[in-house]
């Protein structure tokens, strides 16, 4: 099969290669997909660049995607053959990702892709949608509560806005410009705050009658810590999935304790299986509702996977960068 892979880490154009690799087969408990689309997440670019650990001699790029099941292994329902599906974490803990014509992986990592949802849209669901779901619902329903999503135009943040609205929350979010503000509003955000021109904490407190938010989905725990301390309600929860601004923050723990604020870390690969299965069901339902916004930032041919990684690293994308595995 044709694939985009690397045998050493480094800059995208220097290390990513396009060539033939062995076509996988479905082992016990696995399905094989004929891939149509591959989603590129920041984690994929970080792994390729060497910013995160990796110990495989050859890695096929990217972790998310969508395609059609064409083979099942022992113990897997044969009725899955021919089904359209999307997947998450295809490359987590293993070297064979989705920037290829085929992938074989555990059947628990795939979920149905509704007919009305394109493969390109399906490739945006994986890690962003699943992470957003865990951040929101690991601590129970959000019905009737105020939720703040930082980075509401980002891949995770935008799905968090949509899932929170579907769950009955009032959603506040932060963005950095007018285009991102429009994107967040299209996802259903009730209050959009431009953090470059407004004081986020003051606006959040004004919008919540001084109480603060019950839930915070946080894209930069360390970088936003001072604001977080001001906006959290008593007995609220901070669910953080990244901390790029400060990777080793000094946390004033007693300030959180006095308000019984829970700090939850979210890393999708180690989320319990039942929670991941619920997330899959809820994301499929969101797709079937017809009210979902799937943000595809750009689409690149498989042979241009390096350019797709560069588009992610540029930091200016609005949505998920997708690789078309069929060309």
Protein architecture, described:
This protein is an alpha/beta fold. The chain has two domains: 2-125 and 294-324, Alpha-Beta Complex (Quinone Oxidoreductase, Chain A, domain 1), CATH 3.90.180.10; 128-269, Quinone Oxidoreductase, Chain A, domain 1 (Alpha-Beta Complex), CATH 3.90.180.10. Helix content is 29%, strand content 27%. The protein has helices at 12-15, 42-49, 119-122, 126-137, 155-166, 178-186, 200-207, 225-231, 253-257, 273-289, 305-313, and strands at 2-6, 17-20, 30-40, 59-60, 64-72, 84-87, 102-106, 110-112, 146-149, 170-175, 191-194, 213-218, 232-240, 262-265, 296-301, 320-324. Strands 3, 5, 6, 7, 8, 15 and 16 form a seven-stranded mixed sheet that branches. Helix 4 (126-137) crosses helix 10 and helix 7 packs parallel to helix 8. The protein is globular. The model has no long low-confidence stretch (mean pLDDT 96).
State mean pLDDT (0 to 100 scale).
Answer: 96
CATH topology of the largest domain: Quinone Oxidoreductase, Chain A, domain 1
**Helical proportion?**
25-40%
Terminal Cα separation, in Å? 12 Å
CATH top level of the largest domain is Alpha Beta
Would you tell me the structural class of the helices and strands? Answer: alpha/beta
What composes the largest sheet? 7 strands, mixed
Portion in strands: 25-35%
The CATH homologous superfamily name of the largest domain equals Medium-chain alcohol dehydrogenases, catalytic domain
CATH architecture title of the largest domain: Alpha-Beta Complex
* Stretches with pLDDT under 50, minimum 5 residues: none
- SS element count, helices: 11
